[in-house]
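The aim of this short unit is practical: by the end, you should be able to scan a pair of folded records and say something sensible about each. We start with the first protein, listed as its amino acid sequence and then its structure tokens.
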Amino acid sequence: GKGGVGKSTTAVNLALALRALGSRVGLLDADIYGPSMPRMMGITGQPASADGKTLDPMENYGIKVMSMGFLVDEETPMIWRGPMVQSALEQMMRDVNWGELDVLVVDMPPGTGDAQLTMAQRVPLTGAVIVSTPQDIALLDARKGLNMFRKVDVPVFGIIENMSYFSCPHCGERSEIFSHGGARKEADRLGVDFLGEVPL
């Protein structure tokens, strides 16, 4: 999906929900250029390495987490070309002591570039969840993401409409700030499940 639609927030909420159901959950931040999991998961510090070759994931709320954000300063820009991004992603999959997991939730970066292709082609992904807001421009990116996953034979579980509406905490009035229902229509049009609306 597009940048700013809530992919990372959705990934964290999904990981927390799966953990609450008793699953052993890992969370991989595949957004090399804009990692957000350290801040979103409330984790600081750097991963330990007992053998100097592999990293132990960081952990909070019972979820194991790995992110480029643990390895570089938050304000340092990642000025890497595609092959370096691919290598970093592969290392975060292969050289991290994830242990026994039932589910690994992968927070993808915006767009349909190197990171997405690396994950889709080199990791046996069970499926993808597309996150969008109701706006046309976000839905266009969601459509591209869905088509990319279809081309590389990754099943799409469905589409979530984030920021679907705002509910006033004082009077309860519902305002559809960014339009409403676009993701549901898009899911119907593309033949995938609509997984629900998340308010602002």
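Turning to the second protein, read its sequence before its tokens, just as you did above.
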Amino acid sequence: MHNSSIIKNITLGLLLTVAFFACDMSNRKKVDKTGYQEELKDREVKVVDEAEIFNKASEIGKEIAVSSQKALASQLKKAIKEGGPVHAVGFCNTRVNPIMDSLEQQYDAEIKRVSMHYRNPEDQPDGTEKKILEAYQYSLDSGYSLSDNVQKVGSQFILYTKPIVIDNPLCLNCHGEPGKEITQATMQKIDSLYADDKAKNHKFGDLRGMWSITLSKKEIIKAL
């Protein structure tokens, strides 16, 4: 009887041990499977055509351009309210770049405003941007409406551009005709900050420049 009891206890112990490990392995399998599925999802290759990529790039680019324009316009209006056009010129000189840097971090994209008639030398267009600006100017001179543009830059990036037209008379306080829209005090401030200013003598409706937003093709595909 004693041996029989021992055998029963050993058998029961083995059964409990096997059951414990079976449950443990079952849980591990579930965890491993979940992790594996997540890894597969991350590695999933999306099959998309170029039209889908361009449409998504246009959507994302427009969102960035509109949001960026609102952010800058809001701060610029505040600067004008605080000290008029003279104060606004100083604001553009010292505050715009930090705002643009913040927007780039927010959207994970290269965001620029470029112009053939730049005030800040940093806003000069590169070769591709210059051609697009020339095309915009030609369209405007020919009486055509201006629209956003999307094109490839190499194999890994998409360039989105949006024309900037002077559609607010307030813009001429800093970009209009000296002695007419631009006061002497404002002109003195401009001259003191920008030795090679090319951004005056504009008229209402002129092409001021464009938004130039470079997006990663990889990130665009992820967003689809």
